[in-house]
Amino acid sequence: ACEPSTQHPRAYSVTSLPNRKPSRHHSTMKSSPKTVLVVGAATKTGVHVVQQFLGAEYKCRVIVRSRSMLPEEVVQHKLMESIVEADLLKLADKDLQEITKGCDAIVSCLGHEMDITEEHKKSTNICTVSTKRLCQSIEANKPLRPVKFILMNSTSVLHPDLNETRSILDTVVIGMFRYVLPPYSDSESSFEHLHKTVGTNSKFIEWCIIRPDALVDNDGMASSFSLFPSPICTHLQGCAITRVNVARFIKELLQNESTWSTWAFKAPVIVNTCEGTVQGNAAHQKVGV
After folding, report:
1. Are 137 and 205 in contact (CB under 8 A)?
2. Which of these, 38, 81, 83, 183, could form a disulfide with 112 (CB 3.0-4.6 Å)?
3. Alpha carbons 207 and 95: distance in angstroms, whole number
């Protein structure tokens, strides 16, 4: 669930944010980011993302509505730099700038429950607004090196540069979902903000939009997964991808500069390699366990 909460509008954690000074010499910077901010850290995928980064010895900052939503081992981890308990949409600009200051990367795992209640409809733009605000905070901070922004999105959103198309049935179904479930439009708008508004010429932001197909839980068990520039399954059919594999790919993007170079300013589709539909489709990249 990611609907805004008023329970903790601006309650900060006990950990203060250090005053980091990035190196002015690009060539001396290590390829892997050291500090990562994860928003939507308490979502089913977000928890895996935080755990992957902590396990790889990244310092983590998170924004959640309540720290009680996080596993205790995450809360108590020595590399958990700060836990901001807040409604991200209600944070003051200066507060959000302070939270993002010094971050090498920002990962948004915000999402929606498929809920048609009026209460839920009030929060249907959370992905778009949070993406815009986070990008504005990065730009206001004027980092010396571009911040890597990773957005979890959906295969329901087509990449405008790749001439992707849908079947007639998918078009009808997604059109209905867009009307009944406004989160579909939110995914499209957040994609559009990075793709069009931020674009590829920003001095301060580089981005990657990850499009998982059919997200499933697998008790945290890792497996092989494959990456494609465009969807290989129909929207109704779907290709399974475990949440932990999405988290592993996000970590790989930040750990491996060649992986980032491959997918920067793109919107890769990620699926489990074991899916039968992968057979016969040439994956751009396959990653083992």
Report:
1. no
2. 183
3. 23
How far CA 204 is from CA of 95, 104, 127, in Å, comes to 19, 11, 20
Cβ count within 10 A of residue 170: 16
CA–CA separation, 114 and 52 (whole Å): 27
pTM to 2 decimals? 0.80
What whole-number distance in Å separates Cα of residue 198 and Cα of residue 192? Answer: 9
List the structure tokens of 190: 């957040």
CA–CA separation, 165 and 183 (whole Å): 20
Q: What is the pLDDT of residues 65-78, one digit of tens each?
A: 999 999 999 999 99
Residue 124 pLDDT exceeds 90 = no
Distance, CA of 28 to CA of 89 (rounded, Å): 36
Q: What are phi and psi of 234, to 5 degrees?
A: -70, 160
The reported pLDDT for the residue numbered 150 is 98
CB count within 10 Å of CB 160 equals 12
d(CA 1, CA 136): 24
